[in-house]
Design a protein that fits this description.
elongated; 4 domains; 25% helix; 28% strand; 5-stranded mixed beta barrel; Glycinamide Ribonucleotide Synthetase, Chain A, domain 4; alpha+beta; Alpha-Beta Plaits; binds zinc ion; 26 strands; 10 helices; OB fold (Dihydrolipoamide Acetyltransferase, E2P); 10-stranded mixed sheet; 449 residues
Amino acid sequence: MIIGIDDTDSRKGMCTTYLCAVLVDELKKQRYGEVSTPRLVRLNPCIPFKTRGNGAVSFEIRLNKEKEEEVKEVVKARVSGLSELSEEGTNPGVVFIDDTVLNAIGGGEKDSESVLKNFYENAVREVLTLEDAYEIISNLHLDYFGLKNKRGIIGALAAASFLVLQKTKPDCYDFTYELVAYRRKERWGTSRFIEEASVWKSDAATYPLTWDTVDVANRKTVFAPHSPCPVLFGIRGDSVDAIYKAYELIRAEPEERKMPFVTNQGTDFHLIMCEDAKEKLEDYHSYVLDGVVGSNPRTVEGGHVVFSTLLSGKSEERSIECIAYEPTKGFRDVIRKLRVGDEITVFGSLKKKTLNLEKIELRKLNLVEERNPKCDKCGRTMESAGRLQGYRCKRCGTYRADKDRVSIDRGIEEGLYEVPPVARRHISKPLVRMRMEMEGANRKIHPSR
Ligand SMILES: [Zn+2]
């Protein structure tokens, strides 16, 4: 049986991953059956009504049919007991996918599999309603449980679906790991004690197999939250050995427990590719779009940097506003160097018709600058002889039809750039993870760390 859970936390406390860790430990201890490594699934990061990171969880427990009901009761009791029910935005949901459905999918039943696949993918890329989830629950005869308006059922079904797909098609989705350490209850809400030097040491010993533990350029550790939630810190990476090695090097307050998760963090799965983007780009969706810089960047109030991009490959040329917000820090220095005519690919989420940049690829820099020609005789800059009339030297009377085209130094390299770890979304793929594939494709990456 696969169990998906979501929306048990609030901004003030709890964390759905903690509830999951407690449940996994409890179910293991009670020997109901073998429990899998849990999944942590990040859903569409632009959804307006999310709590914090918009993450849902799931895990599998292999057990005898007669124990199923008992386990469901344990899950319901923990979700009811640990959720932040007094908070308005907390609407827990739990979905159970039992062995009848799993065995059918494992036996090659394609319809249910594709229904769950579409639901997971849409939960990360589109905006789903509770009705979308109920329709699948009803069609597949799934058991579920919810509290208050039960909105968490959407994420619960998505997280459960992700695990189903990983089981049936192990290579189907890119994934990474996070090892999360949790605080002892008496410390919740107090400031975290973590020896900073040990964090830097841990990062240095394991990067790039672990990433987004620290932000070197901004001199900050970014692996621990500042909220009153039970999370002490989380170590993200591409290798189980590396995240445990990093963990061993960290000196911090005593923890209550720790739990490894398999996750879609760091994969860019939220991005809809350019060619798949519908004619109409919609708010609350994230895209990868090819285009050409249409206006030189300008810094606006608050330190944000904006420019427009003329989108290519569409039926008619369209333009879209792009923005690098102030919290993206040094990334704005890259954006400020853009120039009209640069061929680029932009990566980010659309909100209020503006693309909030997460990455950019400078594919081909515009190195040509047109200048009024210089006189061959005296070397002075020639002046326009009137609209479409060419250029003339007033002193010598020499004439030239066209401007000079000179090659300029741009002070920036072509390649992929990204926002720094302090501004990175959980689901965004750090460029350092692309080092192998980009090398083969002869594309340069400029990882921010
Ligand atoms: Zn002259």
